[in-house]
Amino acid sequence: MSELSLGSWVTFGDQISDDVAEDLMIKAYEGGINFFDNAEGYASGQSEVVMGKILRKLDWPRDTWLVSSKVFFGSAKHPQKPNQYGLSRKHVFEACHAALHRLQVDYLDLFFCHRPDPETPIEETVRTMSDLIAQGKVLYWGTSVWSAQEIMEAHEVARQYQLVPPTVEQPYYNLLQRHKIEMEYARLYEQIGLGTTVFSPLASGLLTGKYNNGNPTDARLTLERYGWLREWVLKPERLEKVRRLGEFAHKLGIPQSVLSIAWCLKNPHVSTVILGASKVKQLEENLAATSVAERLTPEVLDRIDEIMGTRPEDPDNSDNH
């Protein structure tokens, strides 16, 4: 799996045209990205439809790319009926087949449980995922924004019943949200070989620096449905840290967004960093994070820690969301 990957949340089938989505995928693939991340809940399934059409059209060799889907939120418009969301055997089974159809693929490389489901026994979900792997419809399954305890519970169930355990977690990770990756999951990397496909390396755009001087009119956070996100992102104390990070990035001669992504890459427990983009130029710039990561010496990383003040020292000392 490439250390950078491309995600489609809030962009494909929603914020950008299908032509731009295609241009982004081409730019990503030509730039060395081989993993494309998706989910049933993105644009109510339309994100997968768009990506599937592009993959079919471009006809890249199937052994040169990976694609994922996620199950939990459902693809049906609200209000949803009881079997249209969650991690029950029925919904996971049907969501997998729907994703295969929308993405126009024979199998999913990765299939994530998009959130934990307290209403479904963990054994039922693990068994269903294991069955899908046995049927050749999924290669690996994982979790997204699960607690370390929930991930370990899934492993214990898999061990007990000789099922396939989850191998990867998809959490948020960025300079403002470090606790899960650096603290909560710490014991899982060696204990069960946990991999991570992290998202939101730019904290929903905050770490690009574009909010340093107010709220730009073309930003995602201006959309009414992201009001909950806007409240978290635009806190004055966070903005001040990000402004200072921008000044440091400028001194280094590195775009602030590229520095923030490269910082994520420096963590050895990050398998891949999922990039989001609405413009090809934006993606092109962020692809430089791979080479920039090599310039992040221990001294540079220490200075970033000083500026941000978000390095978690213990479970209670983190700027988490």
Give descriptors for this structure:
8-stranded parallel barrel, globular, 14 helices, alpha/beta, 321 residues, 43% helix, disordered C terminus, TIM Barrel
Tell me what you see in this structure.
With 321 residues, this protein is an alpha/beta fold. The chain has a domain at 4-170: TIM Barrel (Alpha-Beta Barrel), CATH 3.20.20. 43% of the residues lie in helices and 11% in strands. It is built from 14 helices and 8 strands. An 8-stranded parallel barrel has the order 1-2-3-4-5-6-7-8. The radius of gyration is 19 Å and the shape is globular. The model is unreliable at 315-321 (pLDDT under 50).
Q: Which quaternary structure do these chains form?
A: single chain
Specify the CATH architecture of the domain at 4-170: Alpha-Beta Barrel
Alpha-beta content class: alpha/beta
Helix proportion: 40-55%
Query: Major β-sheet, in short?
Result: 8 strands, parallel, barrel
Query: What name does the CATH topology of the domain at 4-170 carry?
Result: TIM Barrel
CATH class of the domain at 4-170: Alpha Beta
What secondary-structure arrangement, pairings included, does this model have?
Elements: E1 4-7, H1 11-15, H2 18-30, E2 35-37, H3 46-58, E3 66-71, H4 89-103, E4 108-113, H5 122-134, E5 138-143, H6 148-161, E6 168-169, H7 179-184, H8 188-191, E7 195-198, H9 227-233, H10 236-252, H11 256-265, E8 272-275, H12 280-286, H13 289-292, H14 298-308
Parallel strand pairs: 1-2, 1-8, 2-3, 3-4, 4-5, 5-6, 6-7, 7-8
Helix pairs in contact: 2-3, 3-4, 4-5, 5-6
